[in-house]
Amino acid sequence: MIDSSGADIDDHATVARRVARSIGEIRRSPVARVPVTALLLAGSPRVCGEDPGHVRLLGEQENTLPPIVVHRATMRVVDGAHRVRAALLRGLSHIGAQFFDGEENEVFVLSVALNAGHGLPLSRTDRTSAARYILTSHPFWSDRSVATVAGVSAATVARLRKGVAGATTGTRIGHDGRARPVNSTEGRARASELLRRDPTASLRQVARTAGISPATAADVRDRLLRGADPLPDRLRRAVESAERRTAHRSTEGTGAAVGDVLPSAEVLTQMAESLRRDPSLRLTESGREILRLLGVCTAAVRERRRNGTSAVPPHCLDPLAKLMRGYSEIWQSFAAEFEQAHRARTRDPVA
């Protein structure tokens, strides 16, 4: 589907309207009795799973449990995991359910929206984690769209987006369903080039080719006719500021932010050894996997001290450099995720 600006938009209109329509269709659907053993409890937006106390409370009540919501194609529980656990606690073999017939990639979003509307509220950690997941599955959604579904602020989503690989896109679908460029600087530059080549070109065609709205294309044309810069002062200042920051980082000689002080190799080795002795890591499979990865890094530090590049054949230097730079970006991504999780848990230690 194409909107008036010529940009692709979401085929199901706005995010909020789309979710609301799905919920409305589910609520109007008939209730069926389904075997509890046929249900799949997976992919919950609750980071720590179901709350045992809430399950016990529901299980001790004598009233009929409200119907749950199930994705028909996979029998995955979209909403009502606590009720399923309570049914098992009561010894019930069947439970009332209403079905969702949408795509599998919509299940998590719908689960978050339904859990935000009733029952045991999602914790701040749950909502933050949900926002991060939605950014990976729906990277083209605007910050406000993700925030509406996850129940967090748009500012939180914007902060999370910076640390989620693949979530930074050139175009995003807004709350109204329209697709807009995140930064119109490149679009304005393309439009100005097109209009310089052909001043009589259709604004609608220029807008479609440049990926901007007809109104922006008209503004670019007016600026060119006046002999002005195609970029408004605000955008030009932002571009100049970004260029200065990039140049400053380049002079530092590392990818670290200006002012960051990186630990020395000795300090890094000491930190790794301290973590290696931590029982909470040593006694879990996931923790041991992290320690194995850190072990490779520790070995790399030793190898650099001992041999450096002297042991590498000349024809391997360039591909090894490319590999190591690529792997370093992956480690940076891991670091950003760990930092965000640390900040989130520091703010919400109970959840």
UniProtKB/TrEMBL annotation:
Biased composition (Basic and acidic residues): 238-251
Domain ParB-like N-terminal: start-end pairs: 32-116
Chain segments carrying region Disordered: 168-192, 238-257
Domain of life per record: Bacteria
Full protein name: ParB-like N-terminal domain-containing protein
